[in-house]
Amino acid sequence: MTQFTPLIESLPAHVPFVGPETLERQHGQPFAARIGANESVFGPSPKAIKAMQDAVAGSWRYGDPENHDLKQALAAHHGVAPENIVVGEGVDGLLGLLVRMVVEPGTKVATSLGAYPTFNFHVSGFGGELVTVPYRNDMEDPHALLALAKVERAPLVYFANPDNPMGSWHPATVVQDLIDDMPNKSLLCLDEAYVEFAPEGTAPAIDVSRKNLIRFRTFSKAYGMAGVRVGYGIAHESIALAFNKVRNHFGMSRMAQAGAMAALADQDYLADVVAKVATSRERIGAIATQNGLKALPSATNFVAVDCGRDAAFAKGIVDGLGKRGIFIRMPFVEPQNRCVRISAGTDAHLDLLEVALPDVLNELTVNLRVAV
Fold it and tell me: Are strands 85-88 and 213-218 parallel, antiparallel or unpaired?
């Protein structure tokens, strides 16, 4: 029998997220509206698609292990040096590497209760101890998080702005205060995966002189390349260089590198997608209001909708829409799990949602009356 480490033996064996493909297999049919995974239904820039298609013939070769051209392009885009950029297989992959670099069994890691769970899985996977503060008014609480980091002397602190799963955000001034007040021995992991959707003034100016800060961004959301897996970090050279000790040097395919560079160069397409997402968010909010639900403000490509009851009711909405061919998700932790989370969709997707949601709510209401 294979002998795993005691840590691995102690961890549950499950997939953090139930993917839409799994649910489609269970339902025996594909979803008509896949608006639950915060993907961009508007897809990548046509220029990015063309670049990836052109790169396919050379796929017999490994991708450049230094990601040289992509790092050069990202550095120019953000006004930093290439040495301040680290590229990896999506933010999820980079989070895993960062945790590996900082966390040992027993290391305390500070985050918000209910924040992005993939980070938590990485911490648990390396034996770290998660310490948390609750959300405040459905938003991550940077002041409480900072206090926790100081009390626990946590060497790693996670904060997302904008936030997943609630879509909330803080202005740059608040985030800058968090950066400025972070203890020198605490590395702040600032997840900005959704920042392209956020209002002007959400992201603080990039400062790579700080040795206790790394900012993560991605091509999965606004750039519409979730299935390609390209994320990157912006940090002090010493932090970026440390990733070379543990990263998968051949993890980025030639197609991924080519597609990301072309997507980055097509800022007009990015602006068009951001505008379409804003329109979609407004319609999701209107559909929620029509059905007696409350859409929370969002600076992302999804909307958290307060269902006004408990987690069981929210899950009933998720399941009911799923049976009708519409894939959405919900937060995992109270009290945010009274909400459902709906990603931006096309007009056709939201037409389906507008028709199906009243039926689901009526069915749930009838079932509640029968139960009483």
Answer: unpaired
